[in-house]
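Ticket #321: bound-state structure for thiamine diphosphate.
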Amino acid sequence: MNLSNEEKVGMFATMLRIRKFEEKLEELVLTGNISGFVHLYIGEEAVATGVCSALKISDYITSTHRGHGHLIAKGGKTDLMMAELFAKKTGYCKGKGGSMHIADLELGILGANGIVGAGPPIAVGAGLASKYKGNDNVSVSFFGDGASNQGTVHEALNLASIWKLPVIFVIENNCFAEFTHQADHQCCRLVSERAEGYRIPSVVVDGNDVLAVYEATQEAVKSAREGKGPTMIECNTYRIKGHYVGDPETYRSEEERASWQSADKDPILRFEKRLLDEDIADQNTLDSIRQEIQDEIEKAVEYAKESPAPDISELMKDVYA
Ligand SMILES: Cc1ncc(C[n+]2csc(CCOP(=O)(O)OP(=O)(O)O)c2C)c(N)n1
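RESOLUTION: The complex was predicted; output attached.
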């Protein structure tokens, strides 16, 4: 692996930034400061971080309804995201998009998306554009086990394969689609078994191991940039929080959830231990990163709270392109 110690510590910081952003967000929703549906990514941080650490700024990603982690890992600004969640004028979509529509084209973020299974065709379109223009950008589409049952995903897989497009399909197998366990909503055990039907090479990784995700992505990116076409990466992970903030979670046991928060499973605790054990960083350094990120998130909330709401005269502006 070609990562420096500094880059590994940077990956730790990114996972922590996602976690702290979302912990604060959960609090803001539960206290009535933010309204609307919010889907948290807590527990899955190693997937977005490992993948995006292997990408360039000009590479594209498509996200999902559970998108904050993808956006932060690709470089999205926490203050602009928070302002968007508060429906403020200074937010990424001028306060009119909310959690599930945040995009930043300058960072290659083609958007979060409330339509399950809508990201893969967009990534395929971006992949086709890169191939047509002759640049070496790759497109990554993050999607869940549930989304993998959608027809749109199968059409996207077929086209990416037949046209050998530079697309990487990243499955976040977090064990659930809404309130249904993976074993109860699809006939395959691994989502990636489906890649074979489209002659797309696939790999299954521990999605809570950020370096394993990074390594698999690096291989897939290399192959895509060399014109060898798409790869599917299935990341096995677990959604620690409910499907949305407020989910009564009657479909799983407290013991099951707690087991994924243990020091040997939680992606951040695991990586922190590894950084310390391998002398990549000391506890003081990691603690000060934790404090810096906490401060950054507090500032993002202040920025959002102090920002103005969009003017009523702008109601119909920027909502259709
Ligand atoms: C086309 C469409 N169908 C149904 C829904 C309702 N819905 C929202 S999230 C979700 C489950 C998605 O599961 P998965 O793809 O595994 O992602 P996860 O929520 O586990 O991250 C469903 C069915 C939707 N938003 N869009």
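RESOLUTION NOTES: The chain has a mean pLDDT of 97.
TICKET STATUS: resolved
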